[in-house]
Amino acid sequence: MSSEPRNVQRIEAVDDGGHSISRRKLSIEAPHNGNPIKSNEPERNRAVRSHKQSVGYWWAIFVGLVMIILGLPVLGGGVWLLTLGGTWYYSVAGVGLIASGILIARRQMAGVWLYLATWLVTICWAYSEVQFNGWP
Fold first, then answer.
1. pTM higher than 0.90
2. 46, part of any domain
3. Nearest residue to 88 (alpha-carbon basis) of 122, 132, 37, 57
4. Half-sphere exposure of residue 26, counting CA atoms within 13 Å on the CB side?
C-alpha cells in the first residue's frame, strides 16, 4: 500500500536521457459531488488566463493604444518644430505619451508615473511660456 495521501497520484515518466522521472499530481475533489475543484494546471497559468479575459486588462490596452496614437502626431510635430528652430517641449511630450502608453498597455504602474511626469513638464512649460497671462 502506498504511503501517499489518497488525493496524490504518482506519475512515472522517462526523460530524453533515459532517466526515470517521478512526479506527483495533486487532485483535490469536492466532498459532495466528486468534481475536481483544482485542476492539475499550475495556479499561475489559470490566473494569467482569467486575468487576460478581464475588462481591466482590455481597458488598459485600449487606454495605452489611445495614448500611443495621440502621442505619435505630438512627437512628429515636435520633431518638425525642432527642425524649424522651435521649442523642444512637443518632442518630449510626444515621447512621454508614447512611452507611457506602451507601459500602461503592458499594465505597468511606471506608465502612470511617466504620464504624471509628462503632465508636470507640460505645466512647467506652459508657465514658462506665458506665466499667468491668459488669452487676451
1. no
2. no
3. 122
4. 6
For residues 65 and 125, state if they share a domain: yes
Q: Specify the residue for cell string 507640460.
A: 122
pLDDT along the chain (136 residues), means of 10: 54 59 52 52 54 82 96 96 93 96 95 96 90 74
For the chain, the domain total comes to 2
Q: Give dist(CA 37, CA 42) in Å, integer.
A: 13
DSSP 121: H
Q: Which residue has the cell 488669452?
A: 135
Alpha helices in the chain (DSSP H): 43-52, 55-83, 89-105, 110-130
Q: Cα–Cα distance between 78 and 82 in angstroms, integer?
A: 6
Domain coverage including residue 35: 8-40
Helix (H, G, I), strand (E, B), or coil: what is residue 27?
A: coil
pLDDT number for residue 29: 47
